[in-house]
Amino acid sequence: MRNRRGHNPDSAFRTPHSALFAMLTTGSLVAAIYFGSHRLTYFDPALVGYCLATMIACFATVYQVSAFWQRRASAFYGWALVRALRRPRQLAVVMRGAARDLAAQRFVAPRGRLRWLAHMLLAWGTLAGFAVTLPLVWGWLHFEPVGDHAYRAVALSVSTPQFATDGAIAWLIFHALDLAAVAVTLGAGYFLAARVRMRRHPGVGGGFHLAPLLLLLAVALSGLALPVAADLGHSTFRLAAMTHEATVIALLAALPYGKLIHLFIRPLHLGAQLVRASAAPVGCPRCGAAMAPAAQMHAIEDLLTAQGFHFAGHHQQCPPCRRKRLASVHTQLFGAHFQPQQMTRRLALEKAA
To answer: Which of 180, 215, 303, 320 has its C-alpha lying 20 to 30 A from 330's C-alpha?
Structure first.
């Protein structure tokens, strides 16, 4: 979409800074892998495919996210979060919002308890899978035997307390990825079934809604199949391992361009909550309904003006009043029944005349 100046608003935030941030972050990741793996001593060459995929995903994700955060509308909320770091009262508001919306994901609960549970399983299962896999792939985490019946984890050359190989802690550590895969399977399966049911409605059913869930399911199920394939012979396990690696690489390559990118966008919502909580809302000039704070309204007006859009105060009204005003204009222009009340009055006036 282009505005009347002929500029594409979406291209305005694809700045050279985004590419610079992406290169610096990816370069820092390469250096961190080299030094974090003790100069590649603990880097597993068998995982080089996963490692290259994470670097590509890192560059593309930082490029996309930094471009989004640099948009004027996004930067407005981003700077509100930065300023909150110096103000303890606002920082407390941000922390409470993060616990409620990011950790507990309470915003999903009003749409159903089962949906909220599935969202929690999908989100935390995916995060747990990344939290275990990435340190292993980058050589930051490895395990060392301590005697004949104990192990200890070493993360970034820091040793952790040892644990017995036949204890509950060992079982949880060595099956962490399996537990994460089960959580992802349950969560993704619920939403995949919901998406399939929604495809019956018009305008719904694009690949954008299904592809991320199918990728997550493929990664989780192929990961769960690895222990079973190991019992069926070397060739079967090798085929299963290659399939799992291909699905993980596909997921990482799609990460910056799919629905999963909202993992890095969602924190901006905390900035929006902070702005709304720190100032009194402006009233709609037509009905008096509470809207956004004045600072947020001015930021939106400046953004639209900079993009070449002028709405002559239309955005200062609440959404219901905007729809009524638009329907009134359509009624006057076309004489159609866009607004029943106005048409009733118009017909009454015509009848009286």
So the answer is: 303
Listed in sequence order, the DSSP H helices in 138-175 are 168-174
In sequence order, which residues have a C-beta less than 8 Å from that of residue 193 and are 6 or more positions away? none
- Asked if 138 and 26 touch (Cβ cutoff 8 Å), the reply is no
Widest CA span of the chain, in angstroms? 102
- The CA angle 233-237-241, to the nearest 5 degrees, is 175
Q: How far apart are CA 227 and CA 225, in angstroms?
A: 6
The closest of 256, 254, 278, 274 to 265, measured between CA atoms, is 256
Q: Which of 286, 276, 282 is nearest to 323 (CA)?
A: 286
Three-state SS at 309: coil
Beta strands in 255-326 (DSSP E): 281-283, 290-293
d(CA 9, CA 116): 35
Amino acid identity, position 53 = A
SS3 293: strand
How far, in Å, CA of 121 to CA of 104, rounded? 11
Output the pTM of the full model: 0.78
pLDDT, residue 215, reads 93
Mean pLDDT of 50-74: 89
The span from the CA of 26 to the CA of 252, in Å, is 14
